[in-house]
């Protein structure tokens, strides 16, 4: 197991908004994304007590950087939060893992000595800025060279999820059982107050809006396939068309923010470290299957850390679709009983650019509540990538 010598990176605060339904009529639809992120930034500073003038940078994740989320939302949000004009901010896109990557960049900056204090954050308002909104008519984001490399064409994530379900032979019942369990765990955690410390209520929303207590396999079984496509049926005859709105993560609005510094600086400022960022990594994977990168990412981060699965007490694996987590568990051998113990994105929601920081916030607090030591977070990402991060509880 890796030993620490010299400078490290620790998390001293982690907050998130409740997650709202990502459609008009959702509780957070009326809030502009920059204001939604500003709320988490403001709350983070207030809870930790740090003077924002000490923040060396704000690194924010956002996926669809157009319209209300354009023009460097990280900088706009910190100014909206009242931070001094001297604080810089930037916005990054590693698809669904954007704010987990922001955490990695922030930690690397602290360890390297480029930062003393940095905030990693993320936001997505899918009700105001729909997925795909940045693709102009006739645009070609892949370019001719990539198109030549994949002449049959890549596929939407929903089709990738169908391919994973078919390749690992998951039945519709297995997918729906996993999804119903996610709602059950999330509803129980909310009822028991296990999200209270991480939530920063906003616009009258005090709890995650999407969780559906009492969700059953029978209810989910009545839903129709969400991604059925005649052309894809011909191209991929192995697909059984099992992915529905019920076993997929829903469109969501939300933001989250994590304050990162060094142990030395935290002690100087009287800040209480919650967790150390032990090891982080990122991998590329097959862009057709796209969502399986969590498997090699988990293997790589454990190898880099000098750890095994048995060393990890809790896992947070983004529930983009139910077969992603099930395939990850089957291939790595990880214990699903230790995974997403307070529910996952299928129940809580998946506001794309915010999800990495949201998962980290939930993981930090879950380790604290359970008095466990090590947590591992991993997320699949569009285009075939995945981040993985191991943290160690310190309090």
Automatic annotation (TrEMBL):
Q: Which InterPro entries does the entry mention?
A: Thiolase (IPR002155), Thiolase-like (IPR016039), Thiolase_C (IPR020617), Thiolase_CS (IPR020613), Thiolase_N (IPR020616)
Q: What is its EC number?
A: 2.3.1.16
From the Swiss-Prot or TrEMBL record, what is one GO molecular function term?
A: acetyl-CoA C-acyltransferase activity
* Thiolase N-terminal domain mapped to chain residues: 10-263
Query: What general EC class does the enzyme of this chain belong to?
Result: transferase
**SUPFAM superfamilies from the xrefs?**
Thiolase-like
Keywords linked to the UniProt accession: Acyltransferase, Transferase
PROSITE patterns in the cross-refs: THIOLASE_2
UniProt entry tagged with the keyword Transferase: yes
Q: Where is the Thiolase C-terminal domain?
A: 272-393
Kindly name one Pfam family recorded for this protein.
Thiolase_N
The record's NCBIfam families line, in alphabetical order, gives: AcCoA-C-Actrans
Record's family?
A: Belongs to the thiolase-like superfamily. Thiolase family.
Q: Could you identify this protein by its name?
A: Acetyl-CoA C-acyltransferase
Q: Which organism is it from?
A: [Mycobacterium] crassicus
